[in-house]
């Protein structure tokens, strides 16, 4: 059968019926039967025939034919989500075909099914690079997926359906792989389902994952939850709500919903316990009327039955969420148990159940929410930190507990619980976050790291220029947008430093070998940049300053150029390169914990990486014993003792085994440029001392730390920065 020819529906269905239980895929089969007047061949039918042909002979670990998986994923979209877009369903059927069928590529998919289907399939296709570590390959796959999904959210729908079917059919896999897939589902795919407002999917994915992660405990806890659902208490509460609503002039539906295992799981503690749940049963009261004030009337009735928990009422009707969600929420208490009650009308309930999918084909509906999804995905995709950092951004997408704060104009902004001022600033506008100097919260001046609470009124005060933030904000910010902005700033600062260091490093090597700087600007070096995929000399210097490209590689190229002119490279051995440090910057310069280096002291060396500059003492045995050690990568450090830092820095220090009294004796004569803010005993007597000091330059730093080391006191820098948020 030729792929370019139309495939008659009866033939494909008959062929599949011989191999598969088609009753399980009735929604997909129904879409295959649709007429496409004026639009050519049925795209779903064509994709089904194509997948059936090319997946022939492939099986899953369970022994089933592989074709069952892509059809099942498409059935989830068509059946569970009620979607019928031919390109979406066709792409779901084809989502594994490029990855699993040798000889097929995206050009084939685009030629046969169009550019949209090809883009959706591309977004679902993993990176496979043989020379790359598995963790890096996985991280690149996530990055590719979310960046493409920021333009084509259909990709996420396909991935949700794909993962849902995989989670439902894990039984044939080994225990270790089931655990790994379950963990990945909790860290990446369930949070993405939450961001798409697919709460049924989110709960189901978390539930299936936790059943794998905690098989015995989950079974016991589900027994407890089911028992509570059937308890007299829950039935009486449901009957009570129905009774008070019976007097209303329109029908009312009351539903009790049992929480899933996700409500019992603590992501922070990574534990599955009954105590982790705030409530285990929710009630939803659905009013069959379009009169919105009736929702508030029912809220009053509920509160007469059960007084609300203080500060627990949330009015999402007057202040809808960006995804269009509207409802009244109130927490109540009955017999020492808390319950959540949601009150909404039919239209609000439809939005709550289906969210953005309710008007998926209408690009104008929920435009703001679609843009918010796109921005959130871009923030994750453009994150330049570690793979673990990217997973943390995924995890924050599913944070359920929220606070609401007010802008000076009285507008409400919803934020994850634990958010700080900087989260709020970036939520309002990117430039507000970039230039946030401090804030007034309820008429109290606070720093950008101040944690916000329910009902706070926040006014941001900005500077004319972009203000730098320390790496501590990457940990305390709760919103992906704020964390990504902090990460971008740190990466930008690291690039600036790396370019300067790379230039100095390379120039030292060139001088040592008698090579003129003019050679850097020769046509031959331009060809070298193209060969190495560098857009500019700055990119080359950055790679040298991050220890990605070794100077000797560039010197070999220069030696080749010089040999053509009859000149020779002169080498001077026994000289180590150096780095001049005029100031240190959090997020760029790190004082290693292994050998306790200190700013301003002699015999300090440095190593380079993408994360910045790491300082060591030159006798550090731990580093010299590490696999990454290489003598030619060590740089001598020269501190600029004459410089005064533009911004004073606070240092949090720890002195093991010392007392406050002993430290104060050493500090009897605090040198100029050092300010002691705090000193306290840590733990029991003799465990150690923690102190907070401000330094204004390396000269003051040198005098201060030498006074300790002369008495065999060896402070450890636990954190430093302009703001105490880094501590």
From TrEMBL:
One example GO MF annotation: GTP diphosphokinase activity
Record-level GO BP terms: guanosine tetraphosphate metabolic process; response to starvation
Matching CDD domains: HDc (cd00077), NT_Rel-Spo_like (cd05399)
UniProt-listed InterPro entries: Beta-grasp_dom_sf (IPR012675), HD/PDEase_dom (IPR003607), NT_sf (IPR043519), RelA_SpoT (IPR007685), TGS (IPR004095), TGS-like (IPR012676)
Source organism, top-level taxon: Bacteria
Keywords assigned by UniProt, alphabetized: Kinase, Transferase
Domain named HD/PDEase: residues: 62-176
Gene3D superfamilies: 3.10.20.30, Beta Polymerase, domain 2, Hypothetical protein af1432
Domain RelA/SpoT: from-to ranges: 256-366
A GO cellular component annotation in the UniProt record: plasma membrane
Family: Belongs to the RelA/SpoT family.
PANTHER family on file: BIFUNCTIONAL (P)PPGPP SYNTHASE_HYDROLASE SPOT, GUANOSINE-3',5'-BIS DIPHOSPHATE 3'-PYROPHOSPHOHYDROLASE
Name of the protein in question: GTP pyrophosphokinase
Organism: Desulfocicer vacuolatum DSM 3385
């Amino acid at each position: 059968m030729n792929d370019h020819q139309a495939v008659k529906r009866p033939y494909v269905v008959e062929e599949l019926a011989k191999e598969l239980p088609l009753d399980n895929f009735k929604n997909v089969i129904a879409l295959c039967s649709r007429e496409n007047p004026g639009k050519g061949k049925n795209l779903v039918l064509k994709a089904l025939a194509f997948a059936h042909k090319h997946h022939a002979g492939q099986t899953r670990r369970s022994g089933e034919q592989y074709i069952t998986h892509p059809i099942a994923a498409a059935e989830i979209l068509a059946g569970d989500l009620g979607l019928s877009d031919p390109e979406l369903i066709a792409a779901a059927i084809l989502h594994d075909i490029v990855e699993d069928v040798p000889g097929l590529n995206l050009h084939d998919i685009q030629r046969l099914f169009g550019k949209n289907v090809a883009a959706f399939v591309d977004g679902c296709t993993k990176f496979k690079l043989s020379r790359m570590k598995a963790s890096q390959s996985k991280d690149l796959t996530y990055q590719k997926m979310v960046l493409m999904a920021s333009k084509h959210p259909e990709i996420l729908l396909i991935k949700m359906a794909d993962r849902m079917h995989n989670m439902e059919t894990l039984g044939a896999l080994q225990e270790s792989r089931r655990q790994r897939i379950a963990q990945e589902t909790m860290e990446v795919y369930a949070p993405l389902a939450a961001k798409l407002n697919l709460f049924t999917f989110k709960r189901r994915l978390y539930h299936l994952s936790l059943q794998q992660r905690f098989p015995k405990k989950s079974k016991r806890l589900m027994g407890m939850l089911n028992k509570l659902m059937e308890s007299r208490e829950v039935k009486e509460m449901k009957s009570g709500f129905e009774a008070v609503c019976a007097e209303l002039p329109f029908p009312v539906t009351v539903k009790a919903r049992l929480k899933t295992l996700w409500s019992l799981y603590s992501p922070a503690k990574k534990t599955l316990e009954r105590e982790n749940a705030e409530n285990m049963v929710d009630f939803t009261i659905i009013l069959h009327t379009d009169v919105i004030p009736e929702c508030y009337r029912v809220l009053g009735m509920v509160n007469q039955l059960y007084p609300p928990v203080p500060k627990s009422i949330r009015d999402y009707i007057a202040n809808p969420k960006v995804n269009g969600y509207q409802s009244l929420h109130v927490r109540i208490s009955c017999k020492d148990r808390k319950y959540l009650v949601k009150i909404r009308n039919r239209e609000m309930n439809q939005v709550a159940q289906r969210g953005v999918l309710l008007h998926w084909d209408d690009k104008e509906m929920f435009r703001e929410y679609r843009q918010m999804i796109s921005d959130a995905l871009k923030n994750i995709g453009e994150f330049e930190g570690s793979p673990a950092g990217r997973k943390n951004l995924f995890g924050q997408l599913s944070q359920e507990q929220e606070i609401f704060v007010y802008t000076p104009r009285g507008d409400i902004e919803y934020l994850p619980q634990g958010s700080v001022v900087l989260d709020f600033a970036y939520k309002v506008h990117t430039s507000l976050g970039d230039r946030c100097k401090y804030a007034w919260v309820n008429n109290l001046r606070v720093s950008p790291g101040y944690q916000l609470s329910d009902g706070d009124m926040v006014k941001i005060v900005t500077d004319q220029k972009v203000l730098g933030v320390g790496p501590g904000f990457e940990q305390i910010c709760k919103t992906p947008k704020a964390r990504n902005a902090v990460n971008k700033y740190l990466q930008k600062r690291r690039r600036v430093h790396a370019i300067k260091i790379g230039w100095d490093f390379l120039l030292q090597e060139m001088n040592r070998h008698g090579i003129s700087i003019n050679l850097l600007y020769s046509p031959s070096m331009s060809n070298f940049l193209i060969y190495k995929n560098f857009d500019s000399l700055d990119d080359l210097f950055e790679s040298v300053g991050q220890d990605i490209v070794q100077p000797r590689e560039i010197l070999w190229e220069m030696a080749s150029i010089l040999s053509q002119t009859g000149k020779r490279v002169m080498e001077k051995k026994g000289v180590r390169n150096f780095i001049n440090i005029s100031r240190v910057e959090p997020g760029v310069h790190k004082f290693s914990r292994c050998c306790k280096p200190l700013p301003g002291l002699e015999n300090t060396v440095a190593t380079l990486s993408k994360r910045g500059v790491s300082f060591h003492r030159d006798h550090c045995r731990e580093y010299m014993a590490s696999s990454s050690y290489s003598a030619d990568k060590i740089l001598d450090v020269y501190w600029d003792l004459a410089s005064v830092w533009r911004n004073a820095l606070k240092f949090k220090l720890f002195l093991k085994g010392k007392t406050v009294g002993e430290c104060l004796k050493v500090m009897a004569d605090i040198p100029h440029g050092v300010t002691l803010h705090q000193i306290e005993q840590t733990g029991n007597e003799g465990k150690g001392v923690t102190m907070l000091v401000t330094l204004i330059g390396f000269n003051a730093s040198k005098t201060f730390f030498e006074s300790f080391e002369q008495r065999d006191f060896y402070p450890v820098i636990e954190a430093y920065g302009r703001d105490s948020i880094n501590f």
